[in-house]
Amino acid sequence: MFDKSETEKQVAEFLLQIKAIKLQPNNPFTWASGWKAPIYCDNRITLSHPTIRTYIRQQLTRVIQDTFGAVECIAGVATAGIPQGALVAQEMGLPFIYVRSKPKDHGTGNMIEGDVMPGKRVVVIEDLISTGKSSLQAVEALRSADYTVAGLAAIFTYSFDVAAENFKQAGCPTVTLSNYSALIKYAVENQYISQNEVQLLEAWRENPAEWGL
Q1: What percent of the chain has a predicted confidence (pLDDT) above 70?
Q2: Residues in contact with 85: Cβ distance below 8 Å, sequence separation at least 6, in sequence order
Q3: pTM for this one?
């Protein structure tokens, strides 16, 4: 059985411990989008830590089974969702495919790689949810290939309102192992950040596009 609160806390601990997530409210990062952000997340780092990698694989499997029931295929989103999805598919004994960010520009021009089996009930795997745009491109590609998308599971979400709205409009349920609120709570309690820095972190999540300008 998936224990939501315990998993949120444990994953937050792991991500901070191995610096897969870095918090710098007073020395913000610049994302590829141009946004200034007090947080940077690279969940690919979890793949280098066998104990953490195993925990994430097992918890993703549990939350998928508890939330979506019987599924027939796992799909990773390129690129960071590919290894996580392959690990989950192995754990569940299911076929694995992955979805490119855009069609291949040579050969067959595939958007979906693997043995495409229309009609299968699939769960999409992401490492991280920000606005949800890239995830929903993958969902649309799978639906266009006649898959039934049960939903999407990810390791972590920034919990932006725009992401929740985007997934709602697309009719795609989502589940995550941890989230921004759980991370900040754990970070304060364990002195990764001070109580004074929490206000900066909360203000960023409310208006990330204009924060720090």
Answers
A1: 97
A2: 74, 75, 76, 77, 96, 98, 124, 125
A3: 0.94
Chain segment 30-53, per-residue pLDDT in tens = 998 889 999 999 999 999 999 999
Q: Are 116 and 141 in contact (CB under 8 A)?
A: no
β-pair type (96-99, 112-113): antiparallel
Phi first, then psi, for residue 140 (nearest 5°) are -65, -40
Q: Is-contact 183 159, C-beta < 8 A?
A: no
- Is the bond preceding 51 in cis, omega lying within 30 degrees of 0? no
Secondary structure of residue 73 in the 3-state scheme: strand
Task: Report the b/e string of 178-207 with b at 16+ CB within 10 A.
Answer: bbbebbbebbeeeebbeeebeebbeebbee
User: Angle at Cα 135 formed by Cα 132 and Cα 140, nearest 5°?
Assistant: 115
